[in-house]
Amino acid sequence: MSQNQALALEPQPAHVLIGQSAHAQRLRTFASQAARVRHSVLLLGETGSGKDLVAKMIHSQKTRSGQFVLVNCAAIPEALFESELFGHGKGAFTGAQESKPGLFETAEHGTIFLNEIGELPSAMQAKLLEALENGNYRRVGEVTGKTIKTRIIAATNVNIKKALSEGKMRSDLYHRINVLPMTVPPLRERREDIPDLANYFLRQEDDAKTIAPETMAVFRKYEWPGNVRELKNTVIRAVFNSNGEPSIGPEHVRPHLKEEPPQGNENWVQRLVPNSQEKFPTFGAVTQAAEREYLKEVLTRTGGNVKKAAQLAGTCYRKLLLEVQKHNLRDLVRELRNPYSE
Ligand SMILES: Nc1ncnc2c1ncn2[C@@H]1O[C@H](COP(=O)(O)OP(=O)(O)OP(=O)(O)O)[C@@H](O)[C@H]1O
Ligand SMILES: [Mg+2]
């Protein structure tokens, strides 16, 4: 099993959900109530809103002994799905020299977190549903069934209603896992949490620095399409940019965040086609520049996560990766993923 497909993680000792808004309080209450029962949980919400965090809180508050196993449903190749999830017996297929437990077994008495379940191809959804309906599964190549003894948490950041109507999400699987649903609201719907969150992320980086009130005002106004992850990355970058200064000013968070939302297409076009330019730029040059700016924006908002950027841009990972390469933005991706690498 490759590292990027699934990780057996022991959650950090404390998963703290910061915020005093009614939404934040509702999420904390939900996590502690859900931890007390064994029903499936379905976490919905935009990218970066905190679904992983809520899943880990549910797991870490339970009294059961097992592990928290993260399954990235979007990354498991179809051919390996069953052996990854359910395990395989010795000699089940070429190369299966030993029998191996699957992720459901690894998560026994713990939690299996089916992340990005909305991205699972339909055939795999059917296999997963069958196991969940029966409450058991078989290792590939074995005949004896094994009982599912794990708590199931699924999450998705796709619009589930749309995925259902388009047939991308099977409605039978959806109804099977949608026992305890919770939507983690976007950050722009709980702006009162922004100062607490920003200060929390700041303290993790540098507890001597402060955030200037003007900067906090910019934070409070901004739309945060990448939600808490974007805020966290912005604070990390701002600490980095303000090296040696006691306070984070608005200049340290720009140009990534703009105080005012763009005024419409006119400004955008005027920036790319300035009046003063002697030689009128060609259509090709302008569209290239616009594409590059657009890519920089989505990458910045997702902290350099190309997969999430593809989701935000409504395209597929492969296509966006090709664009990133075409526009020579691989260095930007690296820098965004590790703000300290420069
Ligand atoms: N309320 C919060 N308090 C503290 N940290 C938070 C909070 N919400 C989110 N975070 C942090 O923000 C980052 C993004 O959150 P998380 O990974 O849970 O988002 P997500 O909803 O799972 O996103 P995606 O759909 O992209 O997987 C994480 O580092 C997480 O710990
Ligand atoms: Mg997540």
From TrEMBL:
GO BP terms: regulation of DNA-templated transcription
A GO molecular-function annotation: ATP binding
Keywords: ATP-binding, Nucleotide-binding, Transcription, Transcription regulation
InterPro entries, alphabetized: AAA+_ATPase, AAA_lid_NorR, Homeodomain-like_sf, HTH_Fis, P-loop_NTPase, Sigma_54_int, Sigma_54_int_dom_ATP-bd_1, Sigma_54_int_dom_CS
Superkingdom, taxonomy of origin: Bacteria
Keyword check for Transcription regulation: yes
Domain (Sigma-54 factor interaction) ranges: 17-240
PANTHER family for this protein: TRANSCRIPTIONAL REGULATORY PROTEIN (PTHR32071)
Name of protein: Sigma-54 factor interaction domain-containing protein
Species in which this protein is naturally found: Candidatus Zambryskibacteria bacterium RIFCSPHIGHO2_02_FULL_43_37
Lineage of the species this protein comes from: Bacteria, Candidatus Zambryskiibacteriota
